[in-house]
Amino acid sequence: MFGYTDGRIDNVQTYQYSENGKKASDKETSWLVKGNQNVGGNIGTYAGGGNWVTNLRITNSKISGNNTVGGNVGWGSGNGSRLTSGNNTVTGTGYHTGGNVGAHGWAFLNMTSSNNTIKGNINVGGNTGKAGWATDGNLT
Asked: What is the band of 30 on the pLDDT scale with cuts at 50, 70, 90?
C-alpha cells in the first residue's frame, strides 16, 4: 500500500489472494511485497513521530525482504495499535523480522499475530522483530 508515509493511517486491509485464502481461480504469485529494507505488507516505512497507524490487517500473503521486514509495517517510528497479521509468510534474510512489525521505536499496542510462518536471521519475533525504546503491550 505505502512505501513511506508519516501521516495518520486508519483501516487498511491487504491480502495477496482473498481475505479468506487462496481460491482455485486465483493466479499464483510469488509474493505480495518484496524488497530489500523496510518492507511491510501495508507500510514499508512509517515515520509518523507522534501520529498513529490503527486497524491494519494483512492476511494470506507473502512478504519478503532483507532487513526490517514485517507483515504490516517494516519500520515504524510512529505509534501503532490494532494490527492483525494472519496466515502469512514473512521472510527476512537479515535482521528484524516480525509477524506484524519488523522494528519500531514508538508504542505499538494491541497486536495479534496468528498462524504465520516467520523466517529470519537476527531478531525474529511473532509480533515484533525488534522493539525500540517505547512500549509494546497487549500482544497475542
From this structure: confident
Q: Are 108 and 136 contacting, i.e. CB atoms less than 8 angstroms apart?
A: yes
Q: How far apart are CA 71 and CA 51, in angstroms?
A: 20
C-alpha cell at 48: 509518523
Which grid cell is 23? 481460491
DSSP 20: T
Residue 123 in 3-state DSSP?
strand
Could you tell me the three cell numbers for 6? 508519516
What sign for the dihedral angle of Cα 79, 81, 103, 34?
Answer: negative
Q: What is the pLDDT of residues 102-121, one digit of tens each?
A: 999 889 999 999 999 999 99
Is 136 exposed, middle or buried, given 0-12, 13-18 or 19+ CB atoms closer than 10 A? Answer: middle
Q: Give the single-character DSSP code of 23.
A: -
pTM, to two decimals: 0.92
